[in-house]
Amino acid sequence: MMRDSQFLAKLKMKKNEENLGYMSDMALELAQMADDCGHATLAYLFRMAALEASTADTAGTGHDFPHQVTSH
Questions:
Q1: The model scores a pTM over 0.85
Q2: Sign of CA dihedral 24, 26, 27, 29
Q3: Residues 69, 52: contact at Cβ < 8 Å?
């Protein structure tokens, strides 16, 4: 029973990492499109979203943080 729950937890974590990677990639593509159209502020926001997605898995699983990390 314990091994099944550990396996499911690892499977869920892998799926979350794949989803975060996909979101990061899409945000970077949107940032490039916005940059190409001359929308620098929008491109910046998409780059920040990509950064947030790429670091979300480390912040959520790290035990070094005594509280939740926020953007402000």
A1: no
A2: positive
A3: no
